[in-house]
Design brief:
The structure holds 3 protein chains of 3 kinds.
Chain A (H helix, E strand, L loop, with lengths): L1 E12 L6 E12 L3 E5 L6 H8 L8 E10 L3 E2 L5 H7 L4 E4 L3 H4 L6 H13 L4 H13 L5 H4 L9 H14 L4 E5 L7 H18 L2 E6 L2 H4 L5 E6 L2 E7 H6 L4 H8 L23 E14 L4 E16 L4 E5 L6 H8 L7 E5 L6 E4 L13 H11 L6 H13 L15 H13 L5 E5 L7 H18 L2 E6 L2 H7 L2 E6 L2 E7 H6 L4 H9 L21 E2 L10 E5 L2 E4 L5
Parallel strand pairs in A: 3-8, 3-9, 6-7, 7-8, 13-17, 13-18, 15-16, 16-17
Antiparallel strand pairs in A: 1-2, 1-4, 4-5, 9-10, 11-12, 11-14, 12-20, 18-19, 19-22, 21-22
Helix pairs in contact in A: 4-5, 4-7, 5-7, 7-8, 8-19, 13-15, 14-15
Chain B lengths: L2 H26 L4 H6 L8 H10 L6 H13 L5 E2 L4 E2 H36 L4 H15 L2 H16 L15 H35 L2 H8 L4 H28 L4 H6 L5 H10 L3 H29 L1 H4 L4
Antiparallel strand pairs in B: 1-2
Helix pairs in contact in B: 1-13, 5-6, 5-8, 5-10, 6-8, 7-8, 8-10, 9-10, 10-13, 12-13
Chain C lengths: L1 H8 L1 H21 L34 H37 L1 H15 L3 H12 L3 H28 L2 H9 L3 H37 L11 H8 L8 H28 L1 H7 L1
């Protein structure tokens, strides 16, 4: 039975009568118990479409300009009054948002925010509200639900908060659920758990689900039907297998082929060379500990072992991918190499101070908005005590050309797109002819198509200049495309390391296995994600604590794994 | 460290700094203390009398000793002796403070009663004519100094109604509630105008920011009405900056409204400070200024504790 | 240039800019002595005259021209406001910037010292300083500067702390940029916007404080004209000579309003969210 039928929906923003249309006539149907995935990059209009379906768009400065959206065969959402919409929202149409950290009210307890639904929507009161709230949290597999109700949102992890969000959306017993990139802000293993939960709850309740995402690989395991959006238009739609296996539109093909998807070691680079050359970067037993203060005189109560005994080397022309989830210590490792955090122990051998340069995650934040391209590219040169002469300007122009940016030194960062800004950051990092680039989540903030292009550029530059890359990322698909070797970081330690193909196709450490099985892939359809509520162990140790040395097991010529006791 | 504990520890620390500041400031005032105390009569003193007086007041000791003694007195509630009034400073404060406190409370009530609803209302109708009217009034209110409001009010009252509020003597609330209110309403309005305008503006700005927050959208997605979303989800968050502003303004008002008290001839704390400075009664200046700073810091401490009550992120020390 | 145009397109920015421009002209003329009448000259035959053809805003008890006195008063008020805010901005910026950058003990010391200064109501702190230095215009400048220094310190320190954690500062550190370079090019350059807004608003407060001090007889000394003194003089004569009250009151209000409007407009223009809406 069709639950929602959207026909030629058009949405715009701006003053009445002078709107800019951003969704140009989209049509789709969702049936009860069915999952429709809407896939697109930023600016495709996918989120706007979702927000139009329950008319939350009205509160974001938008307006439905035309078309119809018939809910349950009885009410046209596009023409409904606000009072009618208030009856639909929550009770009929539930919604889950992208950022669980900001989607919950910071000053209200979790229990209050769930309870108010039972109060207002189901007319409950007193003890019944609390009991219903505990059941709602139990249902999304939150352990120790009764205690959680009394917590404030910031006391819970992102994954837990997203479960709370799902519990809230389901508390009104809606028949249609809209999930707007519900896992984008989460770690990949947490993402797998949320996906599993959504799939299971949908089976239980028979809810229709609209799942918005930028990751076409993610929906392969969940969706029945797919709608691909680009520039405010639906360019392709159909059953999941048909769209993924026989895409008819160029853009869909582009999303499927040009964009990095995880292929379990099948897509690794084969140009790796490790022929006994002297390493460009050699890290031995690196440790970073942060003191945790407390008490009256700020005595150190313990230390967080953010990075604990990490060793690797990197030869010219080679990429080492460091993968791990938040809190694994991967970014701290990168920052310690550049001395942005003080290492507590260990040795880092490079050829001089300027031999290692870094590219940061967010290109918007890593370029000073008040500096033009000339000043931005001049900074490393000035810092190295050199004069900015004609030769330096010549190098600026050459590098701009090399990273495919216009030859204009007077522009400011805001005049560039996100991908262009990251190219500018790369050019800046190359100004001093470094031998090693540390790339900390360097493509994570970019749209998927832009990601692919920047990765290609990085590979070209590596070949041309013989650069060594330390590529830090949470994204296995991206790492698979660029890394020759991979180190898996968990709780501050490397648990598995070796040739990219070996690690990705034959993971040995339990954590690596869990990580890899959680990565979405186009090949895996309608999988059953296993539920698992294990959390990363605390890294807080007493002062002076010495972590026992790791015991390594050699699996192949370039593949070794730490024995399990360290996890 | 725990937020509340840190605030509680900070209070005596800053208070100590304030006492040093006041002590040093008073000693930087030109002229010696004996002359300042006795005024023209000091010319009649013999050098020996001067010395014994200095010894009696401890003025022959170095600053550190003097400070230490003064601090010792403070701890026991001894703020010193006023020369011009011939009374202990603490007694003068006790007489003057009720008026100032009442005036400050009344001003704050006026400011919050007008400012909070006006600000919230304007934010929910952003960029519409009603919002514009509120903003224009708030802008004018904020730009009008309280003494201008006071003078204009007196002018309107005397020309339009041929009457003036009771001046010179304070009518306590317990003695004659209506007379008390009639006496204080104009000064409170003068002080409350800019205060109300500031509350309006900050409430509107905070509310506008919060209405575009994700969690407000979440509340809407649950099907709640506009009124409920604003009242239950947006307002508690918007109150945080309003509480800050009100706390600071109220704390300053407790220091006395020097000019408004002077215009309406009200014997409040502000008048005492002004008179004490003009009369060079330094024990009084020192004592009253310290008392005012203490009140301000106390109010700030209460505001900080109110934060902790309003926002669990602060309570549990999330950074 | 394009910024000025944007400011003039902003409705409150336009009104504020016009008011301030008019006042600036009056102030300059007043300070240069180019007033319609001598502000100190007493016309004994024209005491307490209502506004008319000869004296546009009337005369006071001594037969002095109110308009001329207002012009000189505006000049003095603006001079005091500019000097004191300039002082407070320089000192506050240095303190706030270094407190944010060096942190630890220096930060603690600076911020606690500012806490101490902030524990006094502005007018009270100014009174204390007047007590030490004696009344006068120089005292007003110093007093107002000391009152607003802690505010500038806070205004600079907060954003400086958040700028310090931005990736472009991290990047600068990886290049080995000098501290001086980072503090000026990366921190200070990005503080221009909040500082400009704060300076404009502080000018409004400084005008208020100056008027308050002179109202109490602790600022400019008679017979020098000043806005506060003129208001104070009007108190006993407001029924018979309301122009003595109305014109100075209006002048203070408008001057403060002008800076407030300008500050609001600047805040809008610097705020990326509203800038998008205005474009």
């Amino acid at each position: 039975m069709t639950l929602l039928s959207v026909e030629d929906l058009r949405v715009g923003f701006g003053r009445t009568g002078r709107e800019t249309e951003v969704v140009h006539g989209v049509s789709f149907d969702v049936a009860a118990g069915e999952t429709l995935a809407i896939v697109g990059e930023s600016g495709s209009g996918k989120s706007v479409t979702a927000m139009a379906v329950n008319r939350l768009i009205d509160y974001g400065g938008g307006r439905i300009l035309g078309g119809r959206a018939i809910y349950d065969g009885r009410i046209d959402v596009a023409a409904a009054t606000e009072a009618e919409m208030q009856r639909l929202r929550g009770r009929e149409i539930g919604m889950i948002f992208q950022e669980p950290m900001t989607a919950l009210n910071p000053v209200l307890k979790v229990g209050t925010q769930i309870g108010e639904i039972f109060r207002k929507q189901h007319g409950m009161s007193g003890r019944a509200v609390r009991q219903a709230s505990v059941r709602a949290l139990d249902r999304v597999r939150i352990p120790d639900a009764a205690r959680r109700l009394d917590q404030a949102p910031h006391q819970m992890s992102g994954g837990m908060l997203q479960r709370v969000m799902i519990a809230m959306a389901l508390a009104g017993e809606p028949r249609l659920l809209i999930a707007d990139e519900p896992t984008t802000a989460l770690d990949v293993t947490i993402q797998a758990q949320i996906m599993a939960l959504l799939a299971e709850l949908q089976r239980e309740t028979g809810t229709g689900l609209i799942f918005i995402t930028h990751d076409i690989g993610l929906v392969a395991g969940l969706a029945d039907r797919v709608l691909v959006m680009q520039g405010g238009k639906a360019v392709e739609s159909g059953p999941i297998d048909r769209v993924l296996d026989r895409p008819s539109h160029d853009y869909t093909r582009h999303l499927l082929n040009a964009v990095p998807h995880f292929r379990a070691g099948q897509a690794v680079r084969t140009d790796g060379v490790r022929d006994g050359r002297a390493p460009a970067l050699d890290v031995r037993d690196l440790a970073v500990r942060f003191p945790v203060g407390g008490g009256f005189l700020r005595r150190t109560r313990g230390e967080v072992h953010a990075v604990d005994g990490v060793s690797f080397d990197l030869v010219p022309g080679e990429t080492l991918g460091i993968v791990g989830e938040s809190g694994s210590g991967k970014s701290t490792t990168a920052r310690a190499i550049l001395n942005l955090v003080q290492p507590s122990a260990g040795a880092i051998d490079t050829e001089g101070r300027t031999a290692v340069q870094m590219v940061f995650q967010n290109p918007n934040a890593s370029l000073n908005p008040r500096m033009d391209v000339r000043a931005l590219l001049a900074e490393p040169v000035i810092a190295a005590g050199q004069r900015v002469d004609d030769a330096v300007v010549g190098r600026m122009r050459a590098l701009l050309a090399r990273v495919d940016l216009p030859d204009d030194l007077d522009r400011f960062p805001h005049e560039f797109s996100g991908g262009q800004r990251q190219r500018l950051c790369i050019a800046r990092a190359l100004m001093l002819n470094p031998r090693v680039l540390v790339l900390d989540e360097a493509v994570s903030a970019l749209d998927v198509s832009v990601q692919a292009k920047v990765l290609d550029l990085l590979v070209d530059l590596q070949r041309e200049f013989g650069l060594a890359y330390l590529f830090v990322s949470h994204d296995m698909a991206v790492v698979e495309r660029i890394a020759h070797r991979i180190a898996v970081l968990y709780a501050g330690r490397i648990v598995e390391m070796g040739a990219a193909r070996a690690v990705l196709s034959d993971p040995r450490h339990p954590y690596t296995r869990k990580l890899i099985s959680a990565v979405p892939s186009i090949e895996r359809r309608r999988i059953d994600y296993a539920l698992d509520t294990e959390e990363v162990p605390s890294l807080l140790r007493p002062v002076g604590f010495q972590t026992p040395a790791q015991v390594w097991r050699q699996i192949g010529p370039d593949h070794r794994v730490a024995s399990e006791q360290t996890a | 460290m725990n937020y509340v504990l840190r605030r509680l520890l900070m209070f005596p620390l800053v208070m100590l700094g304030v006492s040093v500041f006041v002590f040093v400031a008073i000693r930087l005032v030109p002229g010696d203390a004996i002359t300042a105390m006795l005024g023209t009569e000091s010319g009649l003193l013999t050098p020996a009398q001067r010395e014994s007086l200095a010894a009696y007041f401890g003025l022959d000791q170095n600053w550190a000793v003097q400070y230490w003694r003064w601090l010792g007195g403070l701890v026991q509630g001894d703020l010193g002796l006023s020369v011009t009034y011939g009374q202990p400073v603490s007694q003068i404060i006790a007489e003057r403070f009720p008026l100032t406190l009442e005036l400050a409370l009344l001003s704050m009530v006026i400011a919050l009663l007008i400012g909070l609803p006006a600000g919230v209302f304007a934010a929910t109708r952003a960029e519409r004519p009603s919002d514009l009217i509120v903003r224009v009034f708030a802008m004018i209110g904020q730009s009008t100094p309280n003494f201008v409001v006071a003078l204009l009010a007196i002018y309107v009252l005397s020309v339009g109604f041929g009457t003036l509020p009771t001046m010179g003597r304070f009518v306590p609330l317990t003695e004659d509630p209506l007379g008390n209110l009639a006496q204080l309403i104009l000064p409170a309005l003068a002080l409350g105008t800019a205060f109300a305008a500031a509350v309006t503006r900050i409430a509107r700005a905070a509310m506008l920011d919060i209405l575009s927050e994700d969690y407000v959208r979440t509340a809407r997605s649950k099907g709640f009405s506009q009124g409920y979303v604003i009242w239950r989800h947006a307002l508690p968050n918007a109150l945080i900056p309003v509480v800050t502003l009100s706390g600071v303004e109220f704390g300053y008002l407790l220091g006395g409204a020097v000019i408004v008290e002077q215009i309406f001839a009200l014997p409040g704390v502000g008048r005492v400070v002004l008179d004490a400075i003009l009369q060079r009664d330094y024990a009084l200046v020192q004592g009253v200024v310290l008392f005012i700073a203490f009140n301000f810091l106390l109010v700030n401490l209460l505001v900080d504790l109110a934060y902790a009550a309003l926002d669990p992120r602060i309570r549990y020390g999330a950074s | 240039m394009s910024f000025l145009r944007a400011l003039l397109r902003h409705s409150s920015g336009r009104i504020g800019a016009i008011i301030i421009a008019v006042f600036a002209v009056a102030a300059i003329l007043g300070l240069a002595g180019l007033t319609p009448h001598d502000p100190l000259a007493q016309d004994r035959l024209a005491r307490l005259q209502a506004p008319g053809a000869r004296y546009w805003m009337g005369t006071d008890l001594f037969g002095r021209d109110i308009l001329s006195r207002l012009m000189v008063g505006i000049g003095q008020s603006f001079a005091v406001a500019l000097l004191s805010v300039g002082l407070a901005t320089s000192v506050g910026t240095v303190l706030g910037l270094t407190a944010a950058w060096f942190g630890r003990l220096w930060d603690g010391a600076v911020m606690r010292a500012m806490d101490v200064l902030l524990s006094f109501p502005a007018i009270l702190l100014a009174l204390l300083i007047v007590a030490i230095m004696g009344p006068g215009l120089v005292t007003s400048v110093v007093a107002i500067a000391i009152v607003y220094t802690p505010i500038f310190t806070r205004v600079v320190r907060g954003p400086a702390l958040s700028l310090k954690t931005r990736s472009f500062v991290d990047a600068a550190r990886t290049f080995g940029s000098s501290r001086r370079y980072i503090l000026t090019r990366h921190l200070l350059a990005n503080l221009v916007a909040p500082l400009t807004v704060q300076i404009t608003l502080a000018l409004a407060w400084a005008l208020l404080t100056e008027a308050a001090l002179s109202f109490l007889g602790l600022g400019a000394q008679p017979p020098n004209p000043s806005l506060g003194l003129m208001l104070s003089d009007s108190r006993n004569l407001m029924e018979s000579a309301p122009w003595m009250l109305v014109f100075p009151a209006l002048v203070i209000m408008l001057a403060v309003l002008g800076f407030n409007l300008l500050g609001d407009a600047l805040r809008d223009l610097f705020d990326p969210r509203t800038r998008r809406a205005l474009a």
